[in-house]
Amino acid sequence: MKKELGMFGELELSKKVCQGLAAMGFEEPSPIQSQTIPLVLEGHDVIGQAQTGTGKTAAFGIPTIEKIKDGRHVQALILTPTRELAIQVSEELSKIGKFTRTKALPVYGGQSIDRQIRALKAGVHVVIGTPGRLLDHIRRQTIKLDRVHTLILDEADEMLDMGFIEDIETIMSNIPIESRQTLLFSATMPTEIANLAKKYMKSPQKVTISREQLTVPLIDQCYYETREKLNGLCRVMDMEEIGRTIIFGRTKKGVDDLVASLQARGYLVDGLHGDLSQMQRDRVMKRFRERKLDILVATDVAARGIDIDDITHVINYDIPQDHESYVHRIGRTGRAGRQGTAITFIEPREYRQLKLIERLAKTRILRKQLPSSADVLERQREMIKERLVKTLERQRLDAYHSIIADLLDDYDPAEIAAAALKLHLEGFKENPVEEPTTNIDLENTGARPGMVRLFINAGKAQRIRPEDIVRTIASEADIPGNIIGLINIYDKFTFVEVPKDTAERVLSVMHKNTIKGYKINVEPAKRR
Questions:
Q1: How far apart are the first and last CA of the chain?
Q2: Is-above-0.70 flag for pTM?
Q3: How large is the C-alpha radius of gyration of the chain?
Q4: How far apart, in whole angstroms, are the C-alpha atoms of residue 49 and residue 189?
Q5: Between these two residues, 198 and 433, which has the higher pLDDT value?
Q6: Residues whose CB falls within 8 Å of the CB of residue 261, separated by 6 or more in sequence, listed in order
């Protein structure tokens, strides 16, 4: 039966595949798609050199779905370096093939192999898997690859880095070479990958998408130079209108420390690194996809295979080791025609490294000035005003008019509005803390403009951490943790900066209070 045809940009595809692409919101093919799809449909082996974020999954997924025929046998096999990427590729192929009833199955370690065996017996058209688990199925003879006509290696350089090349060759030896079409996609092309292509591919056509197409013009790139990166990060995030954000750290410990510090400041954040169990990793990714987390902090290795389209910001908390890592990181934002922002934090000694990255990546990274704490507070006030205006414009306030009318005889309208705002932001307190009436000198504490520096008589000897300071002050003084400034912890004492307009309240509630069970004294610091 002849397929009904439709158009995807300039590409002629089956009508059902076009319906699937339309349902996904795809209107025009990306450069790698427009170059790769015709070659694959003509039967050529293809080597695609492209970074994350260029649309390579659909570049091999669309023609793969087009070539699926009736039957319950495996017709296409896709190898991926990680289970996350296997799942994401499977989900995308299922969407593309929604109206063709193509069945795609991800197979990977960490999931019950019996469940996978039952699914394979029921019949699937496309298998997407990690090399280790695919070898398990081959040894158990629970997967039949003798009728596979399309083999795809996705992120081949990542599989090389993870030591999978021998496994890949073993898997390839189980697929008949005469009828096999092989597609290989890789961000870089090291010698081992080139040799693999030479050995197993038949006169491959090469498609290369340049790095410039990835990084500009949809990604705004900037950097901030500071010795206090945590404080700077919080200020920038409070000023920026961030959506889903990935922050990159260099080490596992660095990721854990940053997550703890950000959680203590009230951000919805969790971390991803190699020491997490598969169950923990899945739980974190599920929360991030479901928008229960705003921020994901990850190492480069742990972030492999993360493929989420609507990342608004990528933040390099630690500078990448080279320009390729930089391009790979920031390619996770600015996708599918959306605007993205890439922010890098450097210390003064890292300036030369940043300039080298900028030159080799052939891009422009603009220097920006860190916002002050006063800027952040002003931004928060503006946000409150904006929300109030939107609430007023939406009307639907009739239910509250009678309450206000009852109060107008005794109170000024401005005071009623201020009290309502305070009640919403701070909640009701039966026994509010009395603000101190004594005049305390908060002008000469050695703090930055708009801030007051406080002295606390506890430090490393009491195992005090920055998150302990933030959590205690934020909860006791009822202020947002993210407005607390610079924290310096020494052996027997600590300095912490708080905004000037909250300083007296912090002093009042924290003096003679406790942190981690240790009774403390808090007072304005002496000028440095």
A1: 84
A2: no
A3: 28
A4: 7
A5: 198
A6: 230, 466, 467, 470
